Amino acid sequence: MKTKSYTTKRAGGLPAAPRKTNNVYMSTNATQALDEPSFYDGLPWPAPIGEAAFHGLPGDIVRRIAPHSESDPVALLVTLILAYGNAVGRGAHWRTEDTLHYTNEYAVLVGQSSVARKGTSLDRILALIQNAEVDLFWSKNRVLSGLSSGEGIIHVIRDAKTNA
Q1: Distance between CA 119 and CA 55 in Å, rounded?
Q2: What is the pLDDT of residues 69-127, one digit of tens each?
Q3: CA–CA distance from 60 to each of 56, 65, 86, 106, 118 (Å)?
Q4: Is the per-residue pLDDT at 9 higher than 60?
Q5: 93 in helix, strand or coil?
Q6: Alpha helices by DSSP H, the chain
Q7: Pairwise CA distance, residues 126 & 84, whole Å
Q8: How many CB atoms lie within 10 A of CB 99?
Q9: Measured between alpha carbons, how far is 55 from 90 in angstroms, rounded to an integer?
Q10: pLDDT of residue 37
Q11: Are the C-beta atoms of 83 and 65 separated by less than 8 Å?
């Protein structure tokens, strides 16, 4: 079966949902056909993030960086929020009734390798933190790379080797 590789975009530069072409289901960066329909086939993509997400200081920072970067503004915002929460640590929190909410957040930036500028958004935020000398220890010692595989993650969190 002959298939065609293609990538489509929606508003904001995000990839379009997987779709059916000539009765063959393909993902947005597919190089081969899928035998079964995708879970996402026919589902609408969520609306692009609203301007309200860019409120306050984080929004001001993103609006200053975005015109001078190839990074998606949403990636810059998410990376900034995650970096801040990680640098602040588990000490800071706010209480909603009896539940403590900490600044630690989790996210995954997904995009096509070498063109989605996922690392560029991180680089821009890290440069901001380092140049402003916000937390040099954190930016030099707590930001790790090379975690692109399960083995890479295990290597970083493993127990120290000792000669017993």
Answers
A1: 24
A2: 888 899 999 999 999 888 888 888 999 999 999 988 888 887 777 777 888 888 999 88
A3: 6, 9, 20, 22, 20
A4: no
A5: strand
A6: 56-65, 73-88, 118-131, 136-141, 150-157
A7: 10
A8: 8
A9: 24
A10: 61
A11: no
